């Protein structure tokens, strides 16, 4: 399978990265997001090297992703509970109507 090469810039460094065909824009978006995160950390005034900035950005992004995953699971559980309550209420309503 032919993999296109996408050029991205992160902290002023250019990188050419292979990605699956059709995912070029996703890769560019991810690189732009990473670049923003790393630039924010760099701009915070801490005198850190690129490696430390990359690790801090990776930790921040991972934390956000895991928090969003937990939030989604919580919402999913609430939706299941509401669905169960609605099913019970509709079952009860049907019994009352049929009596």
Automatic annotation (TrEMBL):
Described function: Activator of cell division through the inhibition of FtsZ GTPase activity, therefore promoting FtsZ assembly into bundles of protofilaments necessary for the formation of the division Z ring. It is recruited early at mid-cell but it is not essential for cell division.
Keyword Mitochondrion (UniProt): no
Quaternary structure and interacting proteins, as annotated: Homodimer. Interacts with FtsZ.
Official protein name in the record: Cell division protein ZapA
GO biological process, alphabetically ordered: cell division
Family of the protein in this entry: Belongs to the ZapA family. Type 1 subfamily.
Keywords from the named record: Cell cycle, Cell division, Coiled coil, Cytoplasm, Septation
Compartments, record wording: Cytoplasm
Chief location bin: cytoplasm
Key word Nucleotidyltransferase present: no
Family annotation (Pfam families): ZapA (PF05164)
Coiled-coil stretches noted in the UniProt entry, renumbered to this chain: none
